[in-house]
Design a protein that fits this description.
Blueprint (H helix, E strand, L loop, with lengths): L13 H6 L4 E9 L5 E9 L9 H10 L3 H18 L5 E6 L1 H8 L18 E5 L8 H13 L3 E7 L6 H7 L3 E4 L1 H4 L6 H17 L2 E4 L5 H9 L4 E2 L17 H7 L10 H10 L4 H5 L5 E3 L4 H10 L5 E6 L2 E7 H8 L4 H5 L14 E3 L4 H5 L9 H4 L1 E5 L2 E6 L1 H18 L9 H13 L4 E9 L1 H8 L1 H18 L6 E6 L2 E6 L4 H15 L6 H6 L1 E5 L5 E5 L2 E9 L9 H15 L6 E5 L6 E3 L10
Parallel strand pairs: 2-3, 3-4, 4-5, 5-6, 6-7, 7-8, 9-10, 12-13, 20-21
Antiparallel strand pairs: 1-2, 1-8, 10-11, 13-14, 15-17, 15-20, 16-17, 18-19, 21-22
Helix pairs in contact: 3-4, 4-5, 5-6, 11-18, 20-21, 21-22
């Protein structure tokens, strides 16, 4: 062994384990998502089986107490190398080192990586920089990384995203591989913020030329999301636990999961919608009207002079220093001044006499959604008077009630394209995006358009509030019918929803949704209407008609695997809407058509499809 630690300088305990060769290596596979091949193994150290020092946490905690952590790291690497060679491990061997251990390891200045002694080609080694010790000066650490690379080894950042793993190190040390910490990976299929964080790391990896390894993969759903977002490789219990003699090939179940034909449903739509709704930049600045001000001691004649000079000005702010203290509305002021003798009586008096001394103040850093609270407030004077825009409390300009209503409306319309504001389900843009992903990957799926029969009469009879409750109930029922890792549920608008099913049990799920909704919707009716079986109302021609209970109809289009190139998202949505119209005429409320032939209607249970619709 070229790298030796003097046992006489190490306190008893860890030195004894090293001297007696009581350390053992275990290995966990690192898998390529492209073909399921094992790229290599991470070598991990364990103490004597069944002893208090068996776990690596206990082992290194003792080493820290005995001040021999680097000696333990060097010995652990030696044990892992010898064991890797003995079981004829294939691919790369990943070894963990702290910054201090790497500095000591490369301090000899030799031309080759002294640890290996020819036992293992250094070109088959990846050295992972762990978070056990901080790097105060990354420039000072660069020669250490250069020494590793000159010996042929690759360099990796371990547990990226936590503790000492930082973007600063990534930029300065140019790692060949970056291993993303399991915190960001575990549950990524359901966590939009984790998804966005990993996607940001992926973009930077592409720019820097580094390969990403996702740590901590424990379920198929997380694997499929990582695979479909373009992460190249990973490790975790899903592929195999650390073993003394690990498998040389991936297990069948894990291999099948990597090759799964369905694509992931990314957990991103709600987060994007929230971002849109919160607004971007400074919306107040876009609404700002740059207008002159008057001091508190100005007269009403001074106000009249400003309004006459600037006929487009809707209001005028009164300030004390730079702080706005009042707002004078042009129309209200001029109407009063036009009364007989008002100019003669009030012209030389202070302008505060006709001013609103408690104007609405809006900081220009506020988002549109924060401003929207004004629309629901009891004080609606801002609609006529406008409002004052401030910068850290100092006067900046004016805004009009009209511009505020327009800004809030535009943002909410834009947000609704990403997520429905009532159900928070993905809107039209995420729906189209997911259809495009399905088509580009030639994945087979069922596009199912969902509509509610008799919803308009119910809404007219019971009001929009109760109608919204029915829509939220429908969204809940449909969400419960979907597998969130395979099936995409979106809200087109109103009582229209769209499900992109990849589940093999899609038909059973769709039928369950219809049955559950049809039974549950009756609870929204008054007892008398439930007994009557529905309500009386007017049809579109104004005639009195009896309407039954609100029910669900689902029209489905089957898009076969491999046929993606023959379709567009718009065409599929149109076909699904066509199938929905057919389903609304069927007693079963469910119709399926073949996407390869829009004229071929295949009703459920083999019943002939109605041509109405």
């Amino acid at each position: 062994m070229s790298v030796r630690a003097s046992s006489s300088s190490i306190p008893p305990g860890i030195a004894d384990l090293i001297a007696r060769c009581n350390l053992r290596a275990v290995f966990q596979p690192i898998v390529d998502f492209a073909d399921g091949a094992i790229l290599g193994y991470e070598g991990l150290i364990r103490g004597p089986a069944g002893s208090p020092l068996e776990s690596p946490a206990a082992l290194f905690a003792r080493a820290h107490e005995e001040r021999c952590t680097t000696a333990l790291e060097h010995a652990a690497a030696r044990v892992c190398i010898d064991a890797f060679v003995r079981f004829d491990g294939q691919g790369k061997l990943f070894l963990n080192f702290s910054a201090d251990a790497l500095r000591e390891l490369t301090a000899s200045g030799r031309d080759t990586f002294a640890l290996f002694d020819g036992t293992l080609d250094a070109r088959r080694v990846v050295v992972e920089l762990t978070e056990q010790s901080a790097i105060d000066d990354s420039n000072d650490f660069t020669p250490v990384v250069d020494a590793l690379r000159s010996a042929g080894a690759q360099f990796a950042l371990d547990d990226y995203g936590t503790a000492n793993s930082s973007l600063n190190l990534w930029v300065r040390l140019h790692p060949d591989i970056v291993k993303i910490d399991r915190f960001f990976i575990d549950g990524i299929a359901k966590h939009s913020l984790k998804f966005e964080a990993v996607r940001a790391m992926q973009h930077f990896a592409q720019a820097s030329g580094a390969r990403i390894v996702a740590e901590g993969i424990e379920c198929e759903a997380d694997l499929i999301v990582l695979r479909d977002m373009g992460i190249g490789s990973g490790q975790g219990y899903f592929f195999g636990r650390p073993e003394t003699r690990p498998a040389l090939a991936l297990a069948h179940d894990a291999s099948e999961a990597i090759r799964a034909g369905h694509i992931a449903v990314f957990p991103e739509a709600a987060r994007r919608a929230a971002t849109v709704q919160s607004g971007s930049g400074s919306p107040a600045a876009k609404m700002m009207v740059h207008a002159p001000t008057l001091p508190r001691h100005a007269t009403n004649n001074d106000v009249l002079q400003v309004f006459n000079r600037e006929p487009e000005l809707h209001a005028l702010a009164v300030v004390e220093g730079e702080t706005p203290v009042a707002l004078i509305n042009r129309r209200a002021f001029m109407d009063r001044y036009a009364l007989p003798y008002h100019r003669e009586l009030f012209g030389k008096k202070a302008c505060m006499q006709f001013a609103n001394a408690s104007p609405v103040l809006i900081e220009q850093s506020m988002t549109v959604e924060q401003m929207a609270t004004l629309l629901a407030s009891d004080d609606q004077r801002y609609l006529a008077d406008g409002f004052v825009i401030t910068d850290n409390g100092r006067y900046a300009g004016l805004g009009t009630g009209e511009s505020l209503v327009r800004a809030v409306t535009e943002v909410r319309i834009q947000a609704a394209r990403y997520a429905n504001p009532l159900t928070f389900l993905p809107g039209n843009i995420p729906i189209s995006s997911h259809i495009e992903r399905l088509l580009s990957n030639d994945a087979g799926f069922y596009a199912c358009y969902v509509d509610l029969n008799q919803f308009k009469p119910f809404n007219d009879q019971y009001g929009y509030w109760q109608g919204d409750e029915v829509l939220k109930f429908a969204a809940t029922v449909l969400a419960d019918a979907c597998d969130p890792t395979r099936d995409f549920l979106g809200h087109v608008g109103g009582d229209d929803f769209l499900i992109l099913f990849q589940s093999e049990t899609w038909l059973e799920r769709a039928q369950r949704a219809i049955d559950t909704f049809n039974a549950g919707a009756q609870r929204f009716y008054a007892p008398a209407d439930r007994l009557a079986g529905g309500i009386e109302g007017e049809d579109r021609q104004g005639n009195r008609v009896f309407f039954g209970f609100v029910t669900m109809a689902i029209g489905c289009v089957h898009i076969a695997p491999g046929s993606g190139g023959r379709h567009t998202s718009e065409a599929i949505a149109s076909l699904a809407a066509f199938a929905k119209r057919q389903a609304k005429q069927e007693a079963a409320g469910l119709v399926v058509i073949d996407g390869s032939d829009s004229a071929a209607l295949l009703p459920v249970h083999g019943e002939p499809a109605s041509s109405a619709g």
